[in-house]
From TrEMBL:
GO terms for molecular function: alanine-glyoxylate transaminase activity; L-serine-pyruvate transaminase activity. This is Aspartate aminotransferase. The modification N6-(pyridoxal phosphate)lysine is found at K205. Keywords: Aminotransferase, Pyridoxal phosphate, Transferase.
Amino acid sequence: MQTPPTVDSLINILPTEPLLMMGAGPVPIPHSVAQANSIVINHLGDTMAKIIHQMKEMARYVFQTESRWILGVAGPGSAAMEMSVCNLVFPGTRVLSVCNGYFGRRFGEMASRVGGQVDYLIVPDGEAAQLAVVREHLERLRPEVLTIAQGETSSTVFNHTLPQITKLARDYGCYVIVDAVCTLSTMPCEMDNWKIDAVVTGGQKGLSSIPGVSLIAFSERAWERINARTAPPPHWCLDAKLAEQFWHNASYHYTAPVSGILALHEALHLICKETLEERFERHLRCSLGLQRGVEAMGLSLYGAAESRLNSVVGIQVPAGVNRAEICKQISLKYRVEISGSFGLDIVRIGQMGEQCRAHHLFRTLHALGSTMKDLGADVDVAAGVAELERELQRGN
Ligand SMILES: *Cc1c(COP(=O)(O)O)cnc(C)c1O
């Protein structure tokens, strides 16, 4: 027999004052979502069936689709990405992976792991994908599946040409998979109108739920492809036909993450009550307020204005300041968490779900400016905070 280890209890490990989560996810969750997440019920039976039925109804609204084929997945946003890929990409399927950064490439890697023949369209740093370049690739490579992120969290790039790209790809007969993990419910993403065949999202970003329970929507057309396949996908847990057992037939696939599903139900319910129009407006106003505040302080935003993502704001690290030090100091001294980045010399502040609240913005902007000042940058904190206030008051 081994002896049990002596470890600290959680209460001794967790910060006494919670950190304000203003990075690129996970984001703060509303109290009612946290409450829902504390409940365990039977994963099968009438109560769960009703919850799943309502979730699909609400998800159809959030995805802006009439498709029946809404499924959840016990796993991170990446598992939803993998589920979309492994059900639509077969050995030999030609895939075009549009990449504006880390997550775009992840799609391509997932597709090649299931045997897809992947071509990468690498978009230059800080830029959105251009329709003409995508057209040229579609024409030359004739892919059967195209993958793209609406918002590339890693580089804070917004593919503002997404609706044109998805419609064009459909004209070429392509199945289009869109990663909307950080954008869904923060800005328009219209699955049916834009002719998208699969939209994936995670819980912990735009939806302001917990990490680890995700959603996916397949179009009718995508579902026909899934039904017509001749061999099952390599991942048993991610097999959409098996997931249909739970999400459509009230029976067993694997034990669903009941608490996380309840949390996601509550998060979707809050979105429906707020309405997408109001929610988009809140996100836009808050993100632009933050961006104007950052600039008024004397800091610079990353990338060209039209390809800047509002859901995650990229801020250039001023000369002479160390990026890792900013993230460390702002957390230690001001109890605000923000994100560094994979490679680029930027720090990132999230504007997803509960992050878009005026009191969080003021605290974060003040903490960012003060930290930069502490680290020797020449910033005007008061000017930034005043500009944020002006921006938020606009139109009120
Ligand atoms: C966070 C994120 C993911 C991955 O989500 P995980 O839950 O970390 O797996 C994928 N795509 C985008 C755009 C993201 O922001």
